[in-house]
Each structure stands twice: as C-alpha cells, then as structure tokens.
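Quick one: structure tokens for this chain, please?
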Amino acid sequence: MGTAAEPAFDRETLRRGLEGENPDILLSLYADDAEMRIVDRTTQPSHPKVLHGRDEIGRMLEDVYSRDMTHKLERCVIQGDEAAYSESCEYSDGVRVLSESMLSLRGGKIAEQTLVQAWDE
C-alpha cells in the first residue's frame, strides 16, 4: 500500500488571486500558522515587518487589494516544498511596484514567505 501524495501548491490559484485582486483566494493558499516577512525601503532586512497567521496576513492582503492598482504574476517556480514568484504591479498614477517572494510550503500551503519589494519613487 503506497502513501498518499502530499497536496501540491496551486500556481493557478495564485495567479487567479493576484491578477483577479481577490484577497480571499490568496488567503486560501496560506497555512493557519503561516508567517510572512516583508522587506522593503521602510522595513529593512535587519528589522523586517513580520506577520503571523492567516488573520494578520489577511488584513494586509485586504489593504493591498483595496488599492487602485493592477497585479500580474510574472513567473512562478515550484520545486518540492519550496516555491518562488515575481509579481509586478502598477498604481493608476503609473507608479510601479515589483515584488519577489520565496515560499516554504507544507501540505500544499504557504507556511513561510519572504517578500522583497521595491517601487518607483
């Protein structure tokens, strides 16, 4: 008798959530105890912003996707229990944002995410 395969991370759900600007779809990809570290100009590597659990991550996603901007999944690579993706965004005034995320997966869900982002100033 073989063992059941571990659920795979769903790239198309990630695309639908990002490009459809749907925080609920995106939140479904996270484990209940997920942790997200955000590094950017204001939360630098030595003091990243750290979000713990789906509630905190969900509030951040709600904020981001309530803004007047578009999102595009540029690439996504999945290998075993790790994944990485690039996302490009543009505000209605033309300001662009680029983010890169590295993911640790558990049971097909995001357990840890490190997001590095930069935007036009």
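The first helix runs from residue 11 to 19.
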